[in-house]
Design a protein that fits this description.
Elements: H1 2-19, E1 23-25, E2 34-36, E3 44-47, E4 51-52, E5 59-62, E6 68-71, E7 89-94, E8 100-103, E9 109-111, E10 120-123, E11 128-133, E12 141-148, E13 156-167, H2 172-175, E14 180-181, E15 190-191, E16 197-200, E17 205-208, E18 212-223, E19 233-242, E20 250-259, H3 260-265, E21 268-278, E22 283-290, E23 307-318
Parallel strand pairs: 1-2, 3-5, 4-6, 5-7, 6-8, 9-12
Antiparallel strand pairs: 7-11, 8-10, 11-12, 13-15, 13-23, 14-22, 16-17, 17-22, 18-21, 18-23, 19-20, 19-22
Amino acid sequence: MKKLLIGFLFLLSYCLQAQVGNVGINTMIPGSTLEINGSLSAQYRLTSANYNMSITDYYVAYNGSAAGTITLPAAVAAYPAQGNIKGRVYYIKNTGTSTVAVTANGSELIDNQTGLPVSSIGLGQGWFVMLISNGAAGGVTTWEAIVTNPTSSINTIIGMSTNSTYNLPSTANFNSGIPQVLPFTAGEVQINQGSTATWDAVNNRFIINETGIYELDALSYFGAGGTTGTSSNIGVNLGIAKNGTALANVIAGTRANIGQVVAGAGNTPISFHCLVNLTAGDVIHLTMYRGAFDSATGTVQSQAPAGVSESRHFSLKKL
């Protein structure tokens, strides 16, 4: 019994000494507080839906096909109180085909490297972020972020469609002066991996991932096969609408008065170029609508074929 007690006390003494020194795994003389002479495995989580990160998470891959949100855990209390997560490291990568927003908990903020701290940062396709808690809590900067864009090429989205025809039943909005969203052929939209904007094919819109000044170019070829009505002109507007499709959301564009004979040829170009200050989360639509004046009586319609035909090109680039 005495030998067992002595052995237990010796082991306890060794453990207590180990707690105040360096700890080594597969090494007898660790040179750091914790030294691992071998591989290291940590939690890996794959999600395709909104997700709230927990204290057991380490690496999260978002593989969703629609825009999602990953919410960081709260600091609970400022360092060094119990429940604080100072020094906690998270890795998040967007491996999906849409965007994902990484959002701080409650009133906490993220240091996004440039400018003022933000409550949320957007990750485009292929983007990656490493987040480190600095121990603060409340409405201050709680997380420091290192965001990586995996490509060094120009962040540009190019959308092209060869031709679309709006048959008469679908020209009602076009004819009443309400902007009509112009769809793109999905296979013709080119996106650089990690671009500062992404393409939402379901809603025919571009989603901005990073706040800044953007250069937008659009070119449309319009044709109506001739017009009916007393007027020989059609006032056609090509524009960019932000965060909606009403006239109040149009932020840039151009107008052309197209004559009946010219419209019938189907090769009338309308184009514009502009610089726009956009915010992460903004959505951009390319639209076309009839102007208030110089419109044909009743409807703007084609004699052959029975619709408004149009083909387009669009590019978006962050400066």
